[in-house]
Design a protein that fits this description.
6 strands, alpha+beta
Length: 91
């Protein structure tokens, strides 16, 4: 499920996209797969879920996929779980 919301931040208007991502750490390759029937994206990450390494890799992977800076991607919920809510702010 992709949800888009308009938000105002410091005088500039941003579009905020929210996606649900299921994370599989310790995979052979890092891949972000398109959503399935229920709107859940699947991210396979090479990093282990230790000291936030998998979360940092997920942010980099989502930023690369949506062609935005890493600072525009945040994990809103599920930082310690396998299913995460990730927001992407774009102009």
């Amino acid at each position: 499920m992709i949800r888009k919301v308009q938000a105002r931040c410091q005088g500039a208007e941003h579009a905020v996209t929210t996606i649900r991502v299921k994370v599989r750490p310790r995979a052979r390759v890092s891949v972000l797969q398109a959503p399935d029937d229920d709107g859940l994206w699947c991210a396979q990450l090479r990093s282990p879920p230790v000291d936030g390494r998998a979360n940092r890799e997920l942010i980099a992977l989502v930023a690369r996929h949506f062609r935005c800076p890493q600072a525009a991607v945040t994990i809103k919920a599920g930082a310690s779980g396998r299913i995460k809510l990730v927001t992407i702010a774009t102009r």
